[in-house]
Task: structure prediction
Amino acid sequence: MKKFNRTLVTTALPYANGPVHIGHLAGVYVPADIYTRYLRMKGEDVLLIGGSDEHGVPITIKAQKEGITPQDVVDKYHNIIKDSFEKFGITFDVYSRTSSKIHHETASEFFKTLNDKGEFIVKTNEQYYDSKANQFLADRYITGTCPHCNNDGAYGDQCESCGTSLNATDLINPTSAITGNKPELKETKHWYLPLDKYEDQLKKWILEDHKEWKPNVYGQCKSWLDTGLHPRAVTRDLSWGVPVPAEGAEGKVLYVWFDAPIGYISATKELTPDWEKYWKADDSKMVHFIGKDNIVFHCIIFPAMLKAEGSYILPENVPANEFLNLEGDKISTSRNWAVWLHEYLEEFPDKQDVLRYVLTANAPETKDNDFTWKDFQARNNNELVAILGNFVNRTLVLTHKYYTGIIPTQGELTDFDKETLAQIPVFKENVEKNLETYHFREALKEAMNLARLGNKYLADTEPWKLIKTDEARVKTIMNISLQITANLTTLIEPFLPFTANKLRKFLNIEPIAWEKIGAKVIADGHQINQASLLFEKIEDETIQAQVDKLLATKAANDAEKKIVAPVKENINFDDFMKLDVRVGTITAAEKVAKTKKLLKLTVDTGIDQRTIVSGIAEHYKPEEIIGKQVSVLVNLEPKQLKGIESQGMILMAEDADGKLSFVSPDQAIKPGSEIR
Result:
């Protein structure tokens, strides 16, 4: 295996058009942070590079909706995103942004280098144009029906319903997202990167040299390579982005998927003048942490760009995750179907590690996984509280109870003691092996196995019973339990950094180096501090509040989907004047036998007392509408309903969900008053 002297870790750049959610955290940022923390703890030279993607159509769409400038949008959300990452303990060495001066300069220079080398193909083709908006339409400004799954809300680059990549011209009934008009095809000039030129090199590099890549990554790359690569545009007709530094490119910017990965380079430049050794030295290892929707860009397009430039290394691995769903449905920013990190921080203070734990234990490493609030609660209560928290609490409480918090001297070890201590380095090796191969779920499980070992050791030795008969033996048992606890502070730190720090404060110790994990890491006679609970149980009502919040979101989304009934044909004024609508008061009400919907009402119309049959039984109980003032069409021809003559109609309003409400005066009024 090749030896590397430094590691460059990059994370996908989130669009700065909204906050980040748990899908981002699970798919990219928690695994990247775990991996980087682990390498740092081993004393390796490693950088974690991140930043906000502040160009592209999603930004301009957001700005248009909110009536502000794209710069206003990115300034707002860049800060929200950066703050969320910091509070969740994502330890970026630099968190930059693609609207920065250094990025514009770096991206422009990269383009110019390729352009001067003749790497681009410049050609004219037809693209959709909105004549009303007087502009060419980027892919995300075009919506229509997906030709694969018939989803009516597909974009010009991708159908988010079935996940298929599209060209805007593939859409059925394309529509401009700006004006709602049907766009027309119009000629425009663009610069293309000939991916086919690098097809053979990419095939060897991925399909032969990197068979160890995750199956989902390798498989998606193979599918693209097997079907053949084609030139891909690196410019767009837009006003927001990095201007294309070429003659005849006025009004054009670099396509966001050419521009964004260069953001990793510009961020590293911003961080250190030694940036080139991380990007160009053969003994540097580059790892991209991304979601599955970015695999092609990081494994095929960006490497082709780097090869075209000629002086950069290629990524050693791209451990992309699948998607995390939420309560059985795909996370969606536009539908507000998400658990937003900034809201979680407010609603679950000091519980960053609970979410880090759950998202790692349930990480979508090989397939899409589902986050549910019930699972969140169960993992907290049954694993963090009952396993890790329980072991630590019992150990520290007994140490204070028996020895006033002073670590007792370790005496002669039994075979069971030796077997227990011998397992600590085994768990360390297992964690290492899994982290080195990007199996974060398994690595976390191995770290938690050390807490399970501690619980088993205490349960098997029962020091609370033995203290009455063999105090010397209990000292050794408690010493070993404390050694396990101290080792835990290091082994869990990549996954649960806040918990590790809290536990170190309980033990009154400094961080223990990774290579020191083993039998004895804390001295006899050391004074530990008073401890509190590492974790607390999360109650049903807390979880129900989160479920209710999502249900309210779902109801709001469903209501938005409901289409208001179209306007009926016009009537003339004389027809309208024929309607005689009066205020009436319901004086009696009862259900109509053998029906679900009908109520028999007695209504005082001010003219008479009459019977009206109304289909409102599923919405109102008879007893709750007595005395209710309503609007009555009194000159409707009588009709027989279930053997009852109905003499008029009660006017009702029906909302998008089919719920009926009375049309009533806003204050008491005399029955018989006309409604005009």
User: Anything to note?
Assistant: The chain has a mean pLDDT of 93.
